[in-house]
Specification:
The complex is a heterodimer. Chain A is α+β, with helices and mostly antiparallel strands. Chain A is built from 3 helices and 7 strands. By secondary structure, chain B is an alpha/beta fold. Chain B has 2 domains: 184 residues, Rossmann fold (3-Layer(aba) Sandwich); 96 residues, Rossmann fold (3-Layer(aba) Sandwich), CATH 3.40.50.1100. In chain B, strand 4, helix 3 and strand 5 form a beta-alpha-beta unit. Classes of the chains: A alpha+beta, B alpha/beta.
Chain lengths: 95, 313
């Protein structure tokens, strides 16, 4: 087991086009750091210079928006899934 | 019931219990049927408030054409009210909105400008904002107009509290944020411990893939602080629970209703063991406008694909 991180298309240019990354459990912040070690520059895309979550990036831990959990300090356990998604208005279809 | 105008029949929608959909014995799930509004969606409330506000502030005058970016429901509501009041109306919508919505808009007398479907609602918003530079248009702009929030603060919220004075949680879908912000603020002013939780669609990969972060959009009227939680829901779960609503409770609701039910079940599980609770879900529309997706009739994998191909939120 590990933590699966689902990467949306817009961030894949920072992850060698990988759609899913496997990382070790920890806080969301620690997981962003782990990914940044493997893929330098990733963190800069997801976090602001002040170290907060980018306004238009939503991080979901098992489908729940981490902003309403413990934000970047939300604990992510073995077997959990993290999804990163850009925010979109209202509704938007697939094609 | 007798009314002098169809507009007097907006709001005061029924609330009905859906016992078979509660995952726990000690939490009652209720649904507020916004599909019972005159044009069949919660947006009748919003459209009426937007047009009243435009008239009251003097921004909407006889010579203006109303313009609004809309994924369908708001447009249908505005079209109905605009026709009754004698205004022309142009809706800006993605070119892949479901065919029922397009037909309904035309039936109610609206003109339609199509935006690129691949850009989703964001594309419609951008196109309408550009068009609205022409002073011949009045754009109420539901994403940024406090009248949207007010419709729910003054209408939907008090209606819920009247029927369920001990409501412990409210769940609704996140679109413009008007419902969640208006109802949420009202309920929390009454009792800050009431939980307000958003269901949000997880859209197809291509939608997200086509946009950059600079295109991100958070509706100005949406107040994220009012929420206690936000949960994303895939089209598949939404379809499954929209079907269950019909099969087990006889409620024919639009596809986003399933997402709201799915999230409400998580909320109910968390409230369980607290001595009983009422959870109310807002179901924004009926199922009619989604029939062409075959969401109720096709094999689940096919239905999922067909739903994802249209605007289901």
């Amino acid at each position: 087991m590990a933590v699966q991180v689902r990467i949306p298309t817009i961030f894949r240019k920072f992850t060698n086009n990988q759609a899913v990354l496997e990382v070790d459990p920890g806080t969301v912040a620690a997981i962003v750091d782990q990914i940044d070690v493997r893929h330098p520059g990733f963190k800069q895309q997801v976090l602001t210079d002040a170290g907060d979550l980018h306004r238009f990036v939503n991080v979901y831990v098992n489908d729940e928006d981490a902003r309403y959990l413990d934000k970047l300090e939300t604990r992510v356990a073995d077997g959990d899934t993290i999804s990163l998604l850009p925010s979109v208005a209202g509704g938007a279809p697939r094609r | 019931m007798r009314a002098k105008s169809i507009l007097d029949l907006i709001g005061n929608t029924p609330v009905v219990e859906v016992p078979s959909l509660s995952p726990v014995d000690d939490v009652r799930l209720w649904v507020k049927l916004e599909g019972q509004n005159p044009t069949g969606s919660v947006k009748d409330r919003v459209a009426l408030a937007l047009i009243h506000d435009g008239e009251a502030t003097g921004k909407l005058t006889r010579d203006k054409t109303i313009l609004e970016p809309t994924s369908g429901n708001t447009g249908i509501s505005i079209a109905m009210i605009a026709a009754l009041r004698g205004y022309r109306f142009t809706a800006v919508m993605p070119d892949n909105a479901s065919s029922e919505r397009v037909s309904l808009l035309r039936a109610y007398g609206a003109d339609i400008e199509f935006s690129d479907g691949a850009k989703g609602t964001n594309g419609s918003v951008a196109m309408a904002l550009e068009m609205a530079k022409d002073k011949a248009f009045f754009m109420p702009f539901q994403y940024g107009n406090e009248a949207n929030v007010r419709a729910h603060f003054e209408g939907t919220g008090p209606e819920i509290l009247k029927e369920l004075p001990d409501v412990k949680a409210f769940v609704a879908g996140l679109g413009t944020g008007g419902t969640l912000t208006g109802v949420g603020r009202f309920l929390k002013e009454h009792d800050p411990s009431i939980k307000v939780v958003a269901a949000e669609p997880e859209l197809g990969e291509l939608v997200y893939g086509l946009r950059s972060l600079d295109e991100g959009y958070i509706p100005p009227i949406f107040d994220p602080e009012v929420l206690d939680g936000k949960v994303k829901v895939r089209a598949r779960e939404s379809i499954v629970w929209t079907r269950r609503l019909l099969r087990d409770e006889g409620i024919f609701a639009g596809i986003s209703a399933g997402a709201v039910i799915w999230v409400a079940q998580r909320v109910a599980e968390r409230l369980s063991g607290g001595g009983g609770a009422d959870v109310v879900c807002l179901l924004p529309d009926g199922g009619w406008k989604y029939l062409s997706t075959e969401a109720w009739t096709q094999e689940l994998d096919v239905a999922e694909e067909q739903v994802e191909d249209v605007l289901w939120w």
